[in-house]
Amino acid sequence: MKKVFLNTLFLMLSIISFAQTSDISISVSDAETDGPLLGATVYFEELEKGAVTDFDGIATFTEIPNGNQTVKISYVGFKTIETTIEVGTKKEFSFKLESGGNELDEVVIQSSRSTRTVRKIPTRIEFIGAEELGEKAVMNPTNISMVLRESTGIQMQQTSLSSGNTNIRIQGLDGRYTQLLRDGFPLYGGFSSGLSILQIPPLDLQQFEIIKGSSSTLYGGGAIAGLINMVSKTPDEEPSLDIMLTQTQALGSTANVFYSKRNEKFGVSLYSSGHYQKAYDPEDDGFSNLPKTTSLSFNPKFFYYPSEKTTFWIGLNGTYDDRIGGDITKIESGENGIHQYTEENLSKRLSSQAVYETQIDSVSSLNIKNSISFFDRKLSITDFSFDGKQTNTFTEINYQKASKKTDWIFGANLYTSNFDENDNATLQRDQSDVTYGAFVNNIYDVSDSWILETGLRADYNTDFGFFPLPRVSLLYKNDSGFSSRIGGGLGYKIPDIFTEEAEYISFENVLAIDKSALKAERSYGVNFDVNYQTRLFDVVGFSVNQLFYVSAINNGLLLNSTDDGFFMFENATDKIISKGAETNIKFTYKDFRWFLNYALIDTKLNYLAGNPQKPLTAKHNAGSVLMYESDKWRIGYETFYTGKQFLSNGTETTDFITMGLLLMRNFKWGTTFVNFENFTDRRQSRFSPLVLPPHDNPEFPEIYAPTDGFIFSVGVIIKPFGNEDED
């Protein structure tokens, strides 16, 4: 009887115990600053109970059953944690979240030359990571134009229908004001500028870093509108092999291969790409909208790791590119009667990079880098050719020192550029430039909320003199998801003949740069932006970034006609002023992401009567990208609006909308995909002619809309070592 009584008592106590609940509180703080996180979501999924932390970072719950309970804690910009707590043992639980969850806080930006994360850099930097780059590589595996075209405030301006030559414009300013870097090296520009975008495949790139506004302090002249740094993939201990094959209905075929692997002392990455495009004429007007193209690229890199603190690597970039557009009959069958016009660009590029970087001690490091870039291009149209070779060199040494509150960077570099036109040319437009530079940059934590960045560069060009380039940026951030940046600086650009206007007329009758009569272009610019991120209804991530900017260029380089039929460069008598705003909004819900953007670009040419808007610059642009991403599927739907523009003759163009749809399916062995680019088939020929008579010597109006129209592509990415996105 006693035994039965004890068993019954034990059972009753157990039932009472299991039925008991507790009131608890969970505090959430930032692991880095130890400050409370306002608005963090704390959720008991099995109990379907959730709460949001208050100003002190505390979420309170009532009647939580005692025993082991699984809790999930998330906050925008921080890593989500899921763990088990034992309710009933205590009333208060504390957790620290590490940055780097859904956003970019943990990403280290190389273009800042600092080891800081995005969240602690006063300079506004836009980041495009490997995942998004992979999606853009599917949309356009031949070059990076798709990556840049869909970024807010960036326009890809096509300068030739026949060759497809394209320049990048940031915030309404010409492509020559943007500096293109690869792993911190200025490899593109000058004679190659109109082709550079078309000759950089995206498959071996790890991330993009975009800085808008004057960025000349760290990287020298040329970064008046901003800079774009493309960061290459580096080898890991696990081997990686991607084989990407793509085919379009426009008869374009592309193959990309990337391999990387490292061990304790050595590493290697190998990349090669091949692309063939048949001349494509969607209007059937006898002239190509996509040129016949044969392109080959290779990029091997070799890494040596003598110790855990030191890395040395060397790399080569090689490109052969032959593109010919114009009269379809001449391209396919040769010259015949009125079928006489073609434009051919035959180019060869070879560049080398060498980097030595070592960690001197726990707070300081030394970096030495050098590159040599050789570019050979022949541009041929009917009865005229422009042929030359350009050699650029870049050498830099910099020392970095970081402490808990401040980062210092000291550096010096040497940049040389030499363009040598073919000796048989009537006009000899050779040009050589040598620029010496020294710079210092400091990032200082004034407090937990305020961070100040200051910098000064001093450049000396042997022909145009001395350029002091100060720069300052200030960041404010708090724990409620709000931050704001303001910054500004000076810039300059050494004049050369490789402008959009000169390329538009194929450099024919363009006179050489007269260094004794021209001044270097100089600029100043200011950016101000605010950011806010939070959770809506506990489950929807929301972030918004609002940017305002103004940039002004003095002594702008203009190409004007002379009385004897030539074109000569002169300095503008008044400023070019670009001002505007950019809005970026992001929503996230489970596997869905929705991006909205709008850009107001108001670029005025004050040196012309009436201060007109810059030609071929849409004042209003907007976009929407809806993405669904799971382990197996990626589905994206895009819509982009381009507002009305003005041509050089003052004619107003029509506005238009383009749409795209991407479908990707992941398997253990790789990925298959289909892409419908511009599936509503918006192209300029639907609004106005692309080619004007006569047929044997045609005229080509300015390009303000897509010329190739709808492009459908299918492809596969084979991963012999397995697909990380597939379980």
TrEMBL record:
| Keyword set, alphabetical order | Cell outer membrane, Membrane, Receptor, Signal, TonB box, Transmembrane, Transmembrane beta strand, Transport
Domain TonB-dependent receptor-like beta-barrel: residue ranges: 279-667
So which domain of life are we looking at?
Bacteria
Matching entries from InterPro entries are given as: Beta-barrel_TonB, Beta-barrel_TonB_sf, CarboxyPept-like_regulatory, Plug_dom, Plug_dom_sf, TonB-dep_rcpt-like
- Report which residue ranges the record marks as coiled coil: none
Q: Does the keyword Cytoplasm apply?
A: no
Domain TonB-dependent receptor plug, first and last residues per copy: 118-226
Provide the membrane topology annotation: Multi-pass membrane protein
This one is known as TonB-dependent receptor domain-containing protein
- What lineage does UniProt assign to this protein's organism? Bacteria, Pseudomonadati, Bacteroidota, Flavobacteriia, Flavobacteriales
